[in-house]
UniProtKB/TrEMBL annotation:
Keyword Methyltransferase attributed: no
Signal sequence, start to end: 1-27
The keyword S-adenosyl-L-methionine belongs to this UniProt entry's keyword annotation: no
Transmembrane regions listed in the UniProt entry: none
GO molecular function: acid phosphatase activity; metal ion binding
Organism from which the protein derives: Aureliella helgolandensis
InterPro entries: Calcineurin-like_PHP, FN3_dom, Metallo-depent_PP-like, PAPs-like, PAPs_N, Purple_acid_Pase-like_N
Lineage start: Bacteria, Pseudomonadati, Planctomycetota, Planctomycetia, Pirellulales
Descriptive protein name: PhoD-like phosphatase
Length: 410
């Protein structure tokens, strides 16, 4: 069932019940004192029962919490303390706050309000992932660096796409999350650029206050400590992980900016082996493409592709190339209808490059082009449908994949 919309939002304060205004903030919320800004929701664990609610403040502050409860509920809200610290890499002060919510209910809308000292954010909401089989969609894109105006336009388009996806009764249209394939900014060590990106990300917030969960991957421009601080990873985290979006879809995020062999490849082999047995769909995302439309192949061509083919990964999402591409199905280095399809390669604001469509893996039924874009991936029954949507809403490419395994029963 789709979440209810356009209702009054109530929250309990720490001392008791208090009616809050339901007015929503616009993007570019000012960074002033301990006023919460740069809000976001992150999915890096079990998205049916957990989520990280994050925000920034200009001042350190003393107490940082999130109030949350089921949307449209009269129950008293719960309080979650945030892990806080100062971002690395900036001459100016800026502080992160990550409130890690757990024991949530699947397919449930939760109202959230970020509180730093006496300052409060507007009331938002997000929706947890399902725990039973249902159709849905997610977005994938990458490379939002360099052109801030284009990035803001794409983010605005994303908010409009998410809002319109809930305007009908077809659950398959419902967009649940955004997977970002990396390269958020030009230089990952510069916190002033991260701060701009974080403020621009507010534009993905829906007109009714819906926060779109983000599934982040690290890109080659995202070197340095701020990446983990922005996305709530532990300081020494290597940024490869897997989540299940419902019982049928396993979404694996890899890190092409560290060794693709060794521990990461061993982890990937174990992950794909187990997930292929339990999930209808296997998808991966990472930054550097292994079948690129412009550049030379990344190291994952040797480390990961044999595993993708061994365990029949259904779709691979890449970035880095600054263009649009969809390969033919590939197995053993040639076109094979039983093979793996690769899409990408990043168009969330970065200036676009001219692809090389003469490469064998981009020829029909593959494709290559350029333009700011986002992919919509829809899972329904035994079919995965993909659409590449250009800025302005034009659909540049459509494709479908048939499940290699049957969907799980409810």
């Amino acid at each position: 069932m789709k979440p209810l919309r356009n209702s009054h939002l109530f929250f309990a304060t720490l001392a008791g019940l208090c009616l809050l205004g339901s007015s929503l903030a616009v993007a570019d919320a000012p960074l002033e004192g301990t006023k919460p800004a740069q809000w976001r929701v992150l999915w890096t664990d079990d998205p049916a029962t957990t989520a990280t609610v994050s925000w920034s403040t200009a001042a350190r502050g003393e107490n940082h919490t999130v109030r949350y409860r089921k949307r449209n509920s009269d129950e008293q809200n719960s309080i979650q303390l945030a892990d806080s610290g100062r971002y690395t890499g900036g001459e100016f002060e800026l502080y992160y706050h990550h409130a890690r919510l757990s024991e949530l209910e699947p397919s449930t809308a939760y109202e959230v309000q970020m509180v730093s000292d006496s300052e409060q954010s507007p009331v938002f909401y997000f929706v947890t992932a399902p725990a039973t089989t249902r159709p849905f969609s997610i977005l994938h894109g990458g490379d939002s660096r360099s052109d801030q105006d284009a990035r803001r336009r794409v983010n605005t388009m994303i908010a409009e796409m998410v809002a319109s996806s809930y305007d009908n009764d077809d659950e398959a249209d419902d967009i649940l999350a955004l997977a970002h394939g990396g390269d958020y900014i030009v230089s990952g060590t510069k916190m002033d650029l991260w701060s701009m990106w974080l403020s621009d990300h507010e534009l993905t917030t829906g007109p009714d206050g819906r926060l779109l969960p983000l599934i982040p991957a690290r890109g080659n421009h995202d070197k340095g400590k701020p990446f983990n601080e922005v996305f709530g990873f532990p300081e020494d985290d290597l940024n490869y992980y897997s989540i299940s979006i419902g019982p049928d879809v396993r979404f694996v995020t890899l890190n092409s900016e560290t060794s693709t062999a060794g521990d990461q490849a061993q982890w990937l082999a174990e992950e794909l082996s187990q997930s292929r047995k339990s999930h209808c769909w296997l998808l991966t995302q990472y930054h550097r493409p292994v079948y690129p439309a412009v550049k030379e192949p990344g190291a994952g061509l040797k480390s990961w592709v044999p595993l993708f083919e061994k365990f029949n990964v259904d779709l691979v999402c890449e970035a880095d190339g600054h263009n649009i591409k969809r390969t033919v199905p590939i197995r053993n280095g040639k076109h094979d209808e039983t093979g793996v399809v690769y899409i990408g390669e990043g168009g969330m604001g970065v200036p676009q490059r001219t692809p090389k469509p003469e490469r064998w893996f981009l020829q029909e039924p593959g494709m290559a082009d350029q333009g700011h874009h986002i992919f919509v991936l829809t899972f329904q029954d035994a079919t995965l449908t993909g659409k590449c949507v250009l800025e302005g809403g034009k659909v540049r490419d459509e494709f479908s994949r048939t499940a290699r395994a049957q969907p799980l029963t409810q």
